[in-house]
Each structure stands twice: as C-alpha cells, then as structure tokens.
Amino acid sequence: MSGKPIDAVLARITDTIGQWGRGTTLDEMREGFAQLVSGGRRAAFTPVDAGGVPAGWFGTGEAVVIYCHGGGYQMGSMLSHGPLMADIAAASGARVLGFDYRLAPEHRFPAALEDAFTVYRWALDQGIPPERLAIAGESAGSGLALATLLKAREAGLPMPAAIAFLSPWLDMEARSESYDSRAALDPLTQRAKVLMMVKTYLGRDGDPAAPFASPINGDLSGLPPILVHVGDHETVLGDSELLAERVRAAGGSVDLAVWPEMIHHFQVFPELAEARASIAAIGAFLRDRLAP
User: Does residue 62 have an active-site annotation?
Assistant: First the structure.
C-alpha cells in the first residue's frame, strides 16, 4: 500500500491529531480540524439568515440540498466544510444550503437539532417544493439530518425527495462490531473517542439511545430514497449497515456503497480518486431525484 494517495491522507490526519494532548484547547482542535477537512481551500457562498440560524448558499440551481456538516457536534462550520458543499453543489446542479448550528459543549443537545429543524422549516417556508428538496450530511451531520427528519415528521412537515449520507454516525451507543474489526484501520473514530463526544454532546444525564440523539433507533418508515457512501476502513461502517437493514425492513429504499480502503468522510480529500468518484455519484443521485 506504500505510495498510495490514501497514505498521504493518513499521514496528514496523524500529523493533525497527533498534536492534540491534554493541553490542547477546544479552539485549537477546532482550528486543526477545520484545516484538515478544508485542506486550506475556501469556497464562496452567499450568506443568509435561515430563521435565525447563520446559513449560506453554495452554488446555483432550482433544487436545494440542505447540508449538515460533521465534526462530532463539537467542530465544523460552513468554512471548514464549504469546499465539500461546493463540490456537492457542482456535482448535483443544486444549490446547497449549509448552516452553522450551535456546537457542544457550549450548547448541548438538543441545540444542534433545534437549529437544523429551524433551517429545514425555513427552507420549506421559502416556497421550496419538497420534491425539489434533499437533505445530506457526513458523519455526525448524517445523524443530525436523520434526526431532523424524525422531528419534521413529528411536526407534520413534508419529507424531502432524497437523502444522501457520507460516513454516517447514527448510533451514540457505538454498538457496532465494526468498532472492533476496523479499530486498527480508522484514524479518526475510535469507540472511546466517540463515547467521549457523546458525553460532551448529551451531557451527563443524556440518553444515547433516544431516537433524536441516535436516530437509528427511531421510526424509519416513510423516508425518501437514501444513498449512503461509507469506507470499508471506518469503525462506523456498522451504522450504515444497520441503517440499510432497518430502513428496508420498514419498506424503504437504501443504496449502500462501501468503498474499499477508504476512511471516515474520505470525500473531504479531493486528492483521492475515490473521493471524486463518490462526489460524482452522489451528485448524480441528487440530480436524478430532484429533477422537475
């Protein structure tokens, strides 16, 4: 495997995370994560107030994709994930609506969900037809997106036309066998680290099994078609497999693509041919589902 592009990516991740220790502040970790995810790239967007939540439009088009960024509910922003949103906008031909939800530990659950739900309702209030609307996210952003749809359904709001998940983290109990079988392969999402993020997000008394926290435990019936792209070297691979199993059991449709040798949210690394191919396939899926 020596000399493969993924090896250079792994080295960058190790260089970034390897600098974090007991004395590293949260702001320093957020800055390092943003640099890692963005690769130093910047993407232009048009700022908008989405019902009181800072948001921005990436790209142009009539159809809309609401994008929930990842970062363990503690990191990430429109700036860090802007390049990825811009890439998805270009691939899909849709406008991507990114937003800065409140982060833990300053703002614990359900602050992020409240913000995401506000953005979803705001988009519908702008007159965007549900059949021209999709929701997407990567890692924790996928869990936030799915929880948002559970909350939207509870509120009587219409479902979007499509869902796209990149390396989804949907289970805050971290029950999957892949946490063990992929532990030596995944540089980002070890079980102990994940459970620490859960505690930070939910607080001491939060319930990690609650559907709005772990939407994999919710009622998954009546959802629109779902596309999932996940790497075979991810500890959260089991979340994707369980999602596919439960959605199909509920009568829904899931297209699950597992990418060999790929790591968590590999699509943020455009130097990988697999990342570019994944973005193109996600764009084609969204373009097809959001066509008039």
Answer: no
